[in-house]
């Protein structure tokens, strides 16, 4: 009897340890979930249900896909950001969550979707809690555009725009800043709303304003071909759909405060707007 009992105990432990989809007993940090050495940037915990120690809410997006962006200040130089999607029946899970809250989760699914590592909160998720409030929001992390490099066009094996590598994965869902850039391209990307930010060294990255509450359209009023900006800040998002010809990272601006035009460039923008307004009045 003793031998059989030991045997069954070993069998149960083995099934528990080696089941990749088991609920993890030890909570995992954002870094644990985001960090990866995989060439495509996919999390080692994709499709696993686990507990997450969470982070500070630095952004709430109330668009079609409601989501929170979390930040763990212990990993300020990379692998410190993570998105949580709300797929509950009424999509109101985070209605009482505010910026600066530290939230954590239990029994939540890790998912890879269109290249982004994210937590999926639905009606089967164990739960979440607000552990503290009033936490400091991070200043954007200064990087060079080539740290989040724009994709390159290629003809084969699939025609489209693809990054040469996924070194920018460490910055996914993090709040970054690039300085002294010029808008050198527009109308790019899956939704045709990406623009190119290029510095004096010729390094460039892609940005978009779809989460910018002050944009009022596909582009913020500060954005036009040739516009010069002292700095641009935003949250990094990946979009991958290789069969359709896309694999790129984009910097998503959030408000007008994320965009600081060069004074001379701002004068040109205001002059152009005034000329347009006068012409419209004559019509």
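Q: What amino acid sequence fits the structure above?
A:
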């Amino acid at each position: 009897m003793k031998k059989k009992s030991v045997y069954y105990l070993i069998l149960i432990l083995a099934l528990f340890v080696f089941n990749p989809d088991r609920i993890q007993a030890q909570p995992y940090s954002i870094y644990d979930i985001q960090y990866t050495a995989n060439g495509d940037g996919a999390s080692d915990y994709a499709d696993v249900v686990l507990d997450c120690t969470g982070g500070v809410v630095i952004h709430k997006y109330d668009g079609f896909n409601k989501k929170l962006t979390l930040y763990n200040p212990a990993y300020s130089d990379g692998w410190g950001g993570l998105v949580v999607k709300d797929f509950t029946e009424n999509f109101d899970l985070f209605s009482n969550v505010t910026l600066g809250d530290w939230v954590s989760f239990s029994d939540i699914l890790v998912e890879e979707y269109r290249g982004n590592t994210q937590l999926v909160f639905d009606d089967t998720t164990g739960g979440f809690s607000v552990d503290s409030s009033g936490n400091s929001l991070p200043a954007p992390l200064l990087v060079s555009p080539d740290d989040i490099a724009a994709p390159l066009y290629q003809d084969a094996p699939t025609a489209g725009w693809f990054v040469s590598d996924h070194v920018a994965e460490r910055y996914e869902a993090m709040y970054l800043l690039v300085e002294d850039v010029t808008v050198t391209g527009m109308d790019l990307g899956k939704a045709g709303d990406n623009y190119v930010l290029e510095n004096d060294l010729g390094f460039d990255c892609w940005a978009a304003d779809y989460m910018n509450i002050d944009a009022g359209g596909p582009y913020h009023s500060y954005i036009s071909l040739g516009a010069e900006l002292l700095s641009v800040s935003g949250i990094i998002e990946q979009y991958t759909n290789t069969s359709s010809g896309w694999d790129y990272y984009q910097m998503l601006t959030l408000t007008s405060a994320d965009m600081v035009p060069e004074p001379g460039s701002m004068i040109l923008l205001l002059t152009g707007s005034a000329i347009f307004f006068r012409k419209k009045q004559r019509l």
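Q: And what stands out in the fold?
A: The mean pLDDT is 88.
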